Amino acid sequence: RGGESEGGARARAAHLGDALASALVRHAGLCVVSLGEEAAAATELALCALERFHSRASQRQKEHCHHAKDQTKVGGYFRAGEEPDYDADADGFSDEEAGNSRVEDFAVHLRMEGGSSAPATATDEGEVRGGRDAAAVWGNQQWPGGSLGRAFRPSVTRHAEAMVRAGHALHRALKASRLGLRDYAVGGNGIGNGNGNASLMRMLQYPPGATHGHMQAHTDYEAFTLIHQQSRGLQVLQDGEWRWAPVSHSAGQYILMAGDMLEFWTNGSVRAQRHRVCNESRKDKRNSLVVFFAADDETDASPVAPPEGEGE
Fold first, then answer.
1. If we measure between CA atoms, which residue out of 258, 257, 215 comes closest to residue 233?
2. Distance from first CA to last CA of the chain, Å, rounded?
3. Mind listing the pLDDT tens digit for each residue in 44-81?
4. Do 112 and 201 form a contact (C-beta atoms < 8 A)?
5. Mean pLDDT computed over 151-170
6. Quick check: helix, strand or coil at residue 287?
7. Which of 3, 200, 262, 289 matches a 20 to 30 Å C-alpha distance to 107?
8. What is the DSSP string of 225-258?
C-alpha cells in the first residue's frame, strides 16, 4: 500500500505468510492463491499463446525452437514423448499408459535474478502483491521464429515476468511466516538472489485420454510450484487417496504446491505434495501453465531446527 510504513508492510507480509503456512501444513503441501489483476491479464495472454503454439504451429515451426537444437539451450520446445518416466509402479496407471505420455511442452528458463528485499503484501481480498519489481532474466532459451515468434514471445515474456514477481512475493511471505525459516536458508541466496537458478515455466498441452494424456506420480524437487489449470487433470495424494485438485476459476487463481526443497527447509512441517496428471477427457486436449520456483544453486539448504521434543 502506498504510504505504508516498513513495519506495517512487514506485518502484512507475516500475516500473509502465516496464512499460506497454515494452509500448506493443513492440506499437506497444497493451497489455492489469488495472484491479482496483473497476473490474471498476463495469464490470459499466455493461455492464448499456448493454444496458438501447440495447436496451430507446424511441426517444422516447433522444431525450429527445440530445446536441444543448441546444446547450450535448455528452454524451448519439448516433443511429445520427451517427458521423463517417474514412479510408474506406484502410480496406478496401466502397463499401456505407463511410460507412454505424449504431453508437449514449451519451457521458459527463468534465472530469477533481481529479487527485491521489499516485503510481500496482501490486499484486503487476500491477493498476493509483490514489492518492487523482480526482474526475470532469460538465459538458455530458444524461441519460435517468424510471425509466430513475433506474436508468441511478448505474451510469454509478460506472463513469465508476472510469475517471477508473484514468486518473489510468495517467497518473502513464507520467509516472514511462523515456519521459522532461517535467513541463511531462504534469504541472501534463497530464490532469485544468487548467480544461478533452475526456475522454469512450462506451457503444457496433454492429448485426450489417459493412455497418452498423463504424467506419472512424483513430487517437484523445487521449493514451490504455481499451477493454472482450466480443466480437471491434476490429481494429488491426500490421506492416502488420489483426489482431483481444484480447477482455476479465474485467470489469476493458481494452485500453490510445496516441493522437496520447502519440505527439507521446514524439516517436514510442510510436506512436498505428491501429484500426477490424468486427462480424463476422451476428446479434448488439456492446457496448463506451471511455474517451478527453485532455490539458487549456492543456497545453504540446512533445515530449521525440529520442533521441541522431536529430535533431529
1. 215
2. 41
3. 999 999 999 999 999 999 999 998 876 665 689 999 88
4. no
5. 90
6. strand
7. 262
8. EEEEESSS-EEEEETTEEEEPPP-SSTTEEEEEE
Cα–Cα distance measured from residue 93 to residue 99, given in angstroms and rounded to the nearest whole number: 9
Residue in 138, 144, 140 with CA at minimum distance from that of residue 114: 138
Distance in angstroms (rounded) separating the CA atoms of residues 148 and 13: 40
Cβ neighbours around 138 below 10 Å, total: 15
User: In this structure, are residues 267 and 312 in contact, taking their beta carbons and an 8 Å threshold?
Assistant: no
Give 151's contacts (C-beta < 8 A, 6+ positions apart): 49, 52
Q: Which three cell numbers stand for residue 75?
A: 528452454
Query: How far apart are alpha carbons 180 and 305 in whole angstroms?
Result: 9
Using CA atoms, how far residue 222 sits from 50, 293, 302, in Å, is 23, 6, 15
The amino acid at residue 296 is D
